[in-house]
Amino acid sequence: MITEEAGAIRKDVAKSIGVLKGESLAFAYPYGEYSPKSIRILNELGIDMAFTTEERDASQDDHLYELPRHSIFHDTTMTRFQSIFRPHH
What we know:
The chain has three helices and three strands; from the N terminus they run H-E-H-E-E-H.
């Protein structure tokens, strides 16, 4: 999404929203790549939040279009999965 023209980004995201029947509230950046232009377009298209590939817990200070996430893969153990949701105070 960094090198794409604004029109191409808008068209791709709008197509996805159409496939989801307009129920898309969140977006995950392909390969974690995004730019201020990407954020602006998602906002204009009504996307409420977007996730990067930064691996950490989200905080109230995070920008809604630059949220971190935890990756879950086919080989993620139950112990690891549970640790993601355990409070980390």
